[in-house]
Amino acid sequence: MSDSPRELSASIHRTDLAMADGRTIRYYDRSDRGTSTRAAIDQRPFEERPPVADLRLDALTNEWTAIAAHRQSRVFLPPKELCPLCPTKPGLESEIADTSYQVVVFDNRSPSFAHPGEDFSLPKIAGIKTKVGKAAGKAEVICFTDHHDTSFHELPEEHIRIVMEAWRDRTRELSQEKHIAHIAPFENRGEEVGVTLSHPHGQIYAYPFLPPRTEKMYRAAKKFYKDTGKILLDEIIKREIKEKVRIVAENKFWIAYVPFAARYPFEIHVAPKRSVVDLADLADEEADTYPSIAKEVLHRLDGVFGIQMAYIAAWHQAPVRKGRDVMRLHWQITSVRRAPGKLKYLAGSESAFGAFIMDLKPEQSAQLLRDVRITKSKRGLKGLFGSQG
Known about the structure:
The protein is of the alpha+beta class and 389 residues long. The protein has 6 helices and 19 strands.
């Protein structure tokens, strides 16, 4: 399998190739950087793909759980020389057959969700009598760069733009699958949040249902629109711009702020100033200006204590088939670090009951992030010193 490169925006093109076990790898490259044609062949022996995971209903909450037992044997924190997300080299046949790459996306080798292979429908909810279904959907890996020892925000802006284009492209394509209800790109950074591969990468989950938090946001947005005729996130952004105290950074098209009722010591939301439904709905000029605010926000996060902060960065967007009239796009960054050497653990109230308690006012968190001093140079952002130092 080999497709001719597909031209996307910002001089970026995509090339699809087959992997040894039948999965597809998608190379995203900037054509103005002199990239040669992608044609590397995955030389690894064929392996059977794992079965589609089970989908079971928690009847106490009516929430779905994917039971993917095959994930127990997935790779866990391998040494750098054996990293499966690095390019292939002598002594290492990795997930990426080429010897270099800019950005790649491929199906997870041990997926939580996968194509059901037949007509799919979510089982009808019937309490404890609900049938076991298939965890239909997609679980993709997106590798941000072929450089192992770096982080997302340390990449050049033009490289982050390729990542953004990959997110837009995957959202657009996955939305065409009938069995997919919601698409959620996210990144985990740091062992404190469960990272099993240290190479800079994220994942793109496509669910056959609305995840619980998405369902709650949908209901809140729907009710707000019914009561006021207005879009909830649009009004939240207007409040942040008016009050200013929780704003961390902004540019012409984006705003970054600590939410009014933040759940974590450091939580930042980054949203387009325009009302945007999902990643595919972003205008090119909005996609072009995302990298600068992403780099600033994440540099500020690392600069608060002068250490690399573990975080989860997740894109929240409108579901594929409903809520598109009321839900809008934003990027949520949460860090469990509350002080050097101290983490916020989700204990009884948070884990058992879902009721969060914050020890730090959102306005204080925003001030700490704003106080980080950033030195700009021709090579980008550097020389960060937190207000603690």
